[in-house]
Amino acid sequence: MAAEEDFGPVLSLIRAAFAFMEGRIDPPSSMHRLTAAALADHAREAEVWVAEETGQPVACMVLTPRADTLYLGKLAVADTHRGQGLGRQMVDHALARARPLGLPRVTLQTRVELTENHAAFEAMGFRKTGATAHAGYDRPTSLTYARDT
User: How large is the angle between the packed helices 36-45 and 8-18, nearest 10 degrees?
Assistant: First the structure.
């Protein structure tokens, strides 16, 4: 089991990868409240997957089993490694993890404003299944996507 300090570099990766959202999404990303301790808790209670190169994280995701789906959260790829298929590899791994858990699909959420994410997930076989609003908002702020395993 990894210690909290092991997740500092993963947290840094997430923060760097999500930085492009600043000023684009409302409300701000929950990533701002994420801590290395919370990632360590996720690793104990669910799954945190990290791809490394020369000992440094270059991609990561958090997988959380739910009643009828495997939830994929905090998918991040380092700017230096974008366009190399790492996001698709992480998604493929999430789909592979869902099957032995007996979960029929992988779901994720992305913000309404991030249309490039919508296109990327649709290109990976996800379909939009819903929209939700953060507390205090009278409009959808996130879209839910799902892909059957």
Answer: 110
CA 56 to mean position of chain CA atoms = 18
* Sheet strands (E) in 45-140: 47-53, 56-65, 70-77, 105-111, 127-132
Q: List pLDDT tens digits, range 107-129.
A: 999 999 999 999 999 999 999 99
Q: How many CB atoms within 10 Å of residue 123?
A: 9
What is the C-alpha separation between 60 and 57, in angstroms, rounded? 7
In 3D space, the residue among 110, 107, 135, 92 whose CA is nearest the CA of residue 20 turns out to be 110
pTM of the model: 0.94
Q: Tell me which H or E stretch contains 121.
A: helix 115-123
